[in-house]
């Protein structure tokens, strides 16, 4: 028995209805342009059964057969594949200049049976048909700009904007600014004072004082240092101001050299975080980033698209001649109309401002018949002219001269410099001058009567005392440290993105410890790469921004900002902190007894398909799941027929996305779920795609949602495909799409055992499930099915291969009821005039939708032919008694006749009532109006094919947090970093997604940033979720007053809902004003993110999608990402885990702590030199160190020690410490002064003793009367003998050696601020050990060279002096530990207070 005989449908009563094809009497109900893929069938064949055989492996291995699963061999599978959808398309090539594509000849008409079903690699070819045909106006085609013209305009705009911010500062201006600073004035005074002393000494010294040679050397060194610091200051200012400008120059260079090649990125989902636009270049439509279009470009817009800038519809120039409508068009308040009264025919300009959503209301409400017809002719794709260049706005935002806030360490250095110069330096200078003035007056003038010592004692000695406190080496050290730390961070970040190893906890960390630090990736940083990057950053002078890998190290204070982050703001969801494609969460199917069941689906990396059903008994619903799985596998184009196994979410490519705006759920391919249900690639090979029907409903009243116009405007859409199944020689319609569209076209539902009437009870279950999903941030996709039993006709089937089906469903007017009375004066969208109403009454359009198989029940366990639709194809029928029945189309009767009930359930119920009434009317007229069935490529066939379908079920999808994102957010809290998400959705939706992220969603957890009076506001206020209502501010304009007058709850909230780009940017400013260091992460392809990137302390631009599928489009999208992320310090790949950011923060904290401790040690050690000199003055003795010796320790010894701190190991609590806010940079100054004295008094005392005793030894005096004014036997200093001069030099060098030894020992205690030497072992830092050895060696060399020709010997000094002095650290090192222990207690107390403040969310109106 053949398959046709096996599957002959049971005898049924056939009915026919009247054709709605009389165009002379009324407008066709649906406007359609058709195109399909060629068919292989010639006969009228009923649909085969859906048969399943359970395999022994694990899942249902489903095949389609005529009662028995077909045996498919390798050869057969190759010949039974579906025909290629582009078999008759024109392909694209390149012209000779390789910039503009041209048309190539049509492909040969191949046998569709021999063409394989397109796989993932065929997406680009298939997309040619979908987007390359530009729209034609009545006066000719719209070619748009060429690529060369657009690139030239982009370059001109960039250069023009760059010139506006070109404010050259002359060298003299930089020099004057540097000269007028207090450190510079002090340095000039020191140089002049020493110069005066040198001149005076040369004229009055006798015998020759060779220390005067040291003075002239000191003057020269100070002059060179002064000029060098002026150069560094000028260079730093210029590089800081040129970083972003150099990046812009790099973009211009890339535009000039690379160009934007023609190409199409078909795998980019239409999500809010990716700003793309379809631009017409030379008559060819290309998808490009929104920031690469220019003024004068022509772009395609569909309903739901957001305007990338100010744009004007080209229909405004052409006009739509419909006087009835144009004279009475209304428009909502946020659209702009520009009327041209001088023109003979009435025309209007339809204008959209930046970020405005393109909606049908742009052309007035209600739409006239002419507009609907025009919309159908354009197939939903409208052409707009770009009125401005978005790049100009982006560059102005990125080049904003307003600097970012100074980092905390910069503020601390500024405060320390003020304290040192205005307090410490003044105090030491005053004390040194006073002591030497007393000595000069009492001894030199009154006692010895030799006033020749004035210049040295009153000028040179005070200068030596304050010289260590001048920031002579600090600018250079800061440049070196910044270059090295930035190089380390950049190389580490790049290494983390390249490395494929996993993030793991450290060995000594318990993975179940809730307070454990975040995991890290064990990567080896190439030290050679670090040193290369360090040298490039240190010596760079030219184009510092061309290389995006180098980051904005100066303008963003990269390491300081990363190490001090207190808030991380996410301004995007899709592709950044959540997956770009939503994942399946639930699947709803109907069961027996008018009931439904919801099956949970989980992502599972261990599953072969990457997901699994959470319910263990899911296989008991396999009969309900089979048609859904078949739908999901056939309505895709990802190579599933080629046995391609995809474990990650990916895009479903079809033409629907280019005619209307679809949400990510309808763009996501669910082939993995179909395979998890049990289908195999062999089971799909008998099916051949015949036609795609694109149906969308732009006029349907959407259900009342809790979100408003801040989110994307959604148009209900669905995709219906007609498949031919060769084994049973039958046809079927598979549909998936928006719930509103699918349910409206369904009359029955499948419960796994048979067909049931789609009654009110089931409609209510569907509606409740749908609305619950929407308010919980879920997206729904509904599925439907319809077998087509096509009776054989005299002519073969001829599916026209030139076009696809395109259907626009008009709005259906509900009948009047007691609760739905006619109210022509009140309408949500405005009412037409009485003249319009009269015209509508003159041409009434019937509304009909016949239900197939009314009140019919059939027992169909394996889903046989469930619908009694018999369509006679072509020619005259031999049997005029044959009947046909199919659902009729719907037509708009005018939205102003009756008020529309926007609830989906109520609307569906009323539609069912209308269907029943229409069915009765049609049945009465069937016998009188028998007509032949339309051909398969006709308008009527396409309209009827989508009606009378069987509802199969629904899936809910949601953007799930990326891998490790939830743990990342939790670890941020432990590190004292607050994660903040700015959501454009409503409060309920935002909380639903925040709950997935692990954020708190209960008390004081969400603040609405939209104003109540904002026309784009998303809600009326906060949800009343608690008995006691907290007083939270509403609107961004009320945040600051609330912080000043009420409480600081807005600074502790992690979720801000109904937030636009401007509100997010302003909230970042508020965070910064209250001391937060803000890191902003967002999509680098979102054109609206540049302002927030530019305002945050540090920004990270993340690629929301992989941009490596097409080399041509990759260059365009990579360039677009660079433009949007011009202010970003770092850029992150889409597959990079956010744990890379925590590891970079961890490294930045380590480097920042090392830098801070190095600065503290430098200040303390050099201050000890000043104190040492001051004490020597008190003993009325020469200085313990001379000027060039001070410069030696400032430029060699101390820098070597502090630079080695950057190689210190990580402290165990680095990522569990609360960071300090960027305010009140220094507190408890007296406590730190006490710490300094306690830690340095013993080393300074021993250095003074060594100096005094060495002078005593080499001076040859007996006793200890030398302590006060005994050196030199009263001889004036400028008349010292050679022996006395050598004695002083020996004593100073011995003192230097001892001081360096003490600083080497004490540097180990400064490596960690509070941890003891037992907890933090400094000898693990091998670089520090080498620096210590090098410092001691260099100091011995320095002393050896200084004393090489001296008359004295080292053995003249008693051995016990060296032993005692070198063992002296045994006494003062314990004091270091005691002081650090005391400081540790203060730190712990401060940390507890900081954590308490960080974790509390209690405000003035909290329920306590």
UniProtKB/TrEMBL annotation:
GO terms for molecular function: nucleotide binding. Residues 1-46, 74-102, 815-861 are annotated as: Disordered. It holds the Pfam family Cation_ATPase_C. It is found in: Membrane. Residues 12-21 have a biased composition (Basic and acidic residues). InterPro entries: ATPase_P-typ_cation-transptr_C, ATPase_P-typ_cyto_dom_N, ATPase_P-typ_TM_dom_sf, HAD-like_sf, HAD_sf, TMEM94. Residues 22-46, 74-88, 823-833 have a biased composition (Polar residues). Coiled coil: none annotated. Residues 1183-1381 form the Cation-transporting P-type ATPase C-terminal domain. The keyword RNA-binding does not apply. The keyword Signal does not apply. It comes from the Eukaryota. GO terms for cellular component: membrane. Keywords: Membrane, Transmembrane, Transmembrane helix. The chain crosses the membrane at residues 178-200, 212-232, 413-438, 1159-1182, 1188-1208, 1229-1255, 1296-1316, 1328-1351, 1357-1375. This is Cation-transporting P-type ATPase C-terminal domain-containing protein. It comes from Linnemannia gamsii.
């Amino acid at each position: 028995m053949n398959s046709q005989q096996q599957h002959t449908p049971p005898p049924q009563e056939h009915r026919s209805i009247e054709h709605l094809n009389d165009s002379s009497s009324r407008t066709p109900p649906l406007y359609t342009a058709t195109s399909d893929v060629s068919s292989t069938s010639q006969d009228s064949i009923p649909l085969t059964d859906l048969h399943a055989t359970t395999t022994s492996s694990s899942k249902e291995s489903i095949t389609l057969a005529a009662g028995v699963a077909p045996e498919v061999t390798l050869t057969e599978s190759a010949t039974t594949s579906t025909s290629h959808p582009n078999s008759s398309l024109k392909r694209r090539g390149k012209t000779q200049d390789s910039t503009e594509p041209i048309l190539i000849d049509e492909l040969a008409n191949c046998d569709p049976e021999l063409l394989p079903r397109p796989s993932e690699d065929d997406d680009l070819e298939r997309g040619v048909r979908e987007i390359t045909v530009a729209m034609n106006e009545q006066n000719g085609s719209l070619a748009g700009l060429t690529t060369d013209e657009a690139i030239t305009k982009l370059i001109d705009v960039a250069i023009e904007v760059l010139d506006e911010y070109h404010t050259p500062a002359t060298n003299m201006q930089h020099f004057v600014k540097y000269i007028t600073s207090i450190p510079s004035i002090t340095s000039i005074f020191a140089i002049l004072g020493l110069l005066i002393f040198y001149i005076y000494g040369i004229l009055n010294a006798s015998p020759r004082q060779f220390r005067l040679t040291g003075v002239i050397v000191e003057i020269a060194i100070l002059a060179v240092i002064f000029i060098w610091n002026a150069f560094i200051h000028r260079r730093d200012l210029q590089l800081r101001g040129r970083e972003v400008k150099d990046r812009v120059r790099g973009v211009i260079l890339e535009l000039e050299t690379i160009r934007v090649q023609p190409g199409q990125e078909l795998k980019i989902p239409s999500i809010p975080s990716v700003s793309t636009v379809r631009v017409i270049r030379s008559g060819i439509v290309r998808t490009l980033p929104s920031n690469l279009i220019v003024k004068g470009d022509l772009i395609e817009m569909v309903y739901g698209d957001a305007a990338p800038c100010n744009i004007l519809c080209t229909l405004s120039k052409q006009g739509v001649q419909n006087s009835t409508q144009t004279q009475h068009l209304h428009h909502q308040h946020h659209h702009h109309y520009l009327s041209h009264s001088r023109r003979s025919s009435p025309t209007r300009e339809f204008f959209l401002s930046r970020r405005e959503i393109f909606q049908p209301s742009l052309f007035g409400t209600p739409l006239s018949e002419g507009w609907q017809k025009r919309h159908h002719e354009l197939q939903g794709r409208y052409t707009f002219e770009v009125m401005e260049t978005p790049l100009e706005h982006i560059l102005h935002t990125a080049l904003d001269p307003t600097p970012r806030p100074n980092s905390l360490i910069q503020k601390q250095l500024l405060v320390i410099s003020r304290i040192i110069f205005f307090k410490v330096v003044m105090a030491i200078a005053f004390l040194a001058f006073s002591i030497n003035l007393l000595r000069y007056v009492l001894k030199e003038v009154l006692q010895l009567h030799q006033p020749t010592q004035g210049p040295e004692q009153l000028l040179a000695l005070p200068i030596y005392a304050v010289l260590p406190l001048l920031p002579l080496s600090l600018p250079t050290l800061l440049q070196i440290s910044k270059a090295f730390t930035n190089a380390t961070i950049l190389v580490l970040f790049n290494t983390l993105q390249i490395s494929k190893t996993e993030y793991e906890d450290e060995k000594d960390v318990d993975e179940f410890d809730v307070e454990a630090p975040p995991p890290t990736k064990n990567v080896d940083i190439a030290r050679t790469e670090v040193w290369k990057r360090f040298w490039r950053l240190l010596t760079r002078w030219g184009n510092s921004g061309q290389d995006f890998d180098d980051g904005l190290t100066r303008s963003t204070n990269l390491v300081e900002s990363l190490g001090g982050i207190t808030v991380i703001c996410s301004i995007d969801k899709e592709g950044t902190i959540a997956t770009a494609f939503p994942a399946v969460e639930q699947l709803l199917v109907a069961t027996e007894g008018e009931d439904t069941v919801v099956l949970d689906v989980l992502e599972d990396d261990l599953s072969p398909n990457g997901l699994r059903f959470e319910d263990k008994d899911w296989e008991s619903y396999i009969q309900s799941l089979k048609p859904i799985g078949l739908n999901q596998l056939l309505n895709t184009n990802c190579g599933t027929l080629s046995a391609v196994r995809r474990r990650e979410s990916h895009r479903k490519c079809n033409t629907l996305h280019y005619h209307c705006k679809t949400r990510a759920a309808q763009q996501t391919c669910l082939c993995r779920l179909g395979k998890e249900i049990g289908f195999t690639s062999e089971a799909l090979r008998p099916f051949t795609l015949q036609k795609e029907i694109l149906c969308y409903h732009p006029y349907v009243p959407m259900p009342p949602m809790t979100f408003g116009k801040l989110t994307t405007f959604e148009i209900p859409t669905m995709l219906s495909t007609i498949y031919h199944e060769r084994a049973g020689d039958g046809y079927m319609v598979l549909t998936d799409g928006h719930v509103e569209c699918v349910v409206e076209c369904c009359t029955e539902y499948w419960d796994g055992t048979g067909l049931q009437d789609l009654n009110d009870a089931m409609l209510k279950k569907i509606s409740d499930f749908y609305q619950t999903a929407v308010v919980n941030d879920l997206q729904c996709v509904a599925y439907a099915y319809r077998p087509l039993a096509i009776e054989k006709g005299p002519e073969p089937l001829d599916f026209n291969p030139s076009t696809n089906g395109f259907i626009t469903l008009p709005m259906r007017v509900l009948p009047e009821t007691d609760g739905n009375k006619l109210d022509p004066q009140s309408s949500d969208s405005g009412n037409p005039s009485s003249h319009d109403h009269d015209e509508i009454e003159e041409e009434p359009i019937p509304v009909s939708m016949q239900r197939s198989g009314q009140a019919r029940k059939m027992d169909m366990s394996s889903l046989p032919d469930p619908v009694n639709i018999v369509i006679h194809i072509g020619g005259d029928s031999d049997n005029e008694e044959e009947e046909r029945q199919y659902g009729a189309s719907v037509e708009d009767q005018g939205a102003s006749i009756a008020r529309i009930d926007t609830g989906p359930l109520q609307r569906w119920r009323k539609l069912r009532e209308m269907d029943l009434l229409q069915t009765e009317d049609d049945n009465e007229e069937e016998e009188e109006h028998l007509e032949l069935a339309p051909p398969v490529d006709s308008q009527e066939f396409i309209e009827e094919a989508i009606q009378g379908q069987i509802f199969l079920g629904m899936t809910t999808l949601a953007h799930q947090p990326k891998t490790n994102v939830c743990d990342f957010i939790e670890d941020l809290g432990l590190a004292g970093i607050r994660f903040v998400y700015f959501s454009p959705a409503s409060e309920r939706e935002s909380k639903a997604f925040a709950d997935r992220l692990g954020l708190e969603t209960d008390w004081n957890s969400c603040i609405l940033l939209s104003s109540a009076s904002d026309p784009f506001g998303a809600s009326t206020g906060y949800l009343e979720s608690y008995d006691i209502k907290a007083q939270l501010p509403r609107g961004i304009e009320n945040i600051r007053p609330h912080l000043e007058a009420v409480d600081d709850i807005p600074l502790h909230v992690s979720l801000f809902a109904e937030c636009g780009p401007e509100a997010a940017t302003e909230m970042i400013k508020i965070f910064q004003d209250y001391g937060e260091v803000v890191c902003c992460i967002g999509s680098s392809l979102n054109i609206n993110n540049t302002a927030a990137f530019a305002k945050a302390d540090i920004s990270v631009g993340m690629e929301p999608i992989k941009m490596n599928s097409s080399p041509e489009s990759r260059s365009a999208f990579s360039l677009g990402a660079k433009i949007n992320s011009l202010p970003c310090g770092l850029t992150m790949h889409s597959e990079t885990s956010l744990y890379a950011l925590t590891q970079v923060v961890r490294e930045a904290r380590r480097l920042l702590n090392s830098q801070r401790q190095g600065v503290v040690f430098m200040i303390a050690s050099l201050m000890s030199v000043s104190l040492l000199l001051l004490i020597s003055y008190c003993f009325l003795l020469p200085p313990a160190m001379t000027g060039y010796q001070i410069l030696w320790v400032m430029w060699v010894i101390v820098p070597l020690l502090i630079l080695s701190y950057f190689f210190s190991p990580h402290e165990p609590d680095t990522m569990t410490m609360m960071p300090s806010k960027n305010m009140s940079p220094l507190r408890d100054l007296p406590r730190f002064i006490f710490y300094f004295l306690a830690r340095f008094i013993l080393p300074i005392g021993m250095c003074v003793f060594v100096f005094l005793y060495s002078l005593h030894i080499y001076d040859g005096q007996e006793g200890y009367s030398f302590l006060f004014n005994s050196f030199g036997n009263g001889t004036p200093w400028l008349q010292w003998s050679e022996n006395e001069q050598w004695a002083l030099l020996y004593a100073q060098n011995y003192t230097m050696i001892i001081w360096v030894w003490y600083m080497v020992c004490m540097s180990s205690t400064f490596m960690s601020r509070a941890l003891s030497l037992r907890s933090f072992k400094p000898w693990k830092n091998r670089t520090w050990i080498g620096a210590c050895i090098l410092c001691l060696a260099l100091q011995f060399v320095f002393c050896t060279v200084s004393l090489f020709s001296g008359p004295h010997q080292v053995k003249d000094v008693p051995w016990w002096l060296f032993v005692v002095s070198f063992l002296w650290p045994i006494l003062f090192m314990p004091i270091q530990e005691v002081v650090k222990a005391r400081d540790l207690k203060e730190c712990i107390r401060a940390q507890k207070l900081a954590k308490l403040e960080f974790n509390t969310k209690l405000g003035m109106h909290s329920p306590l």
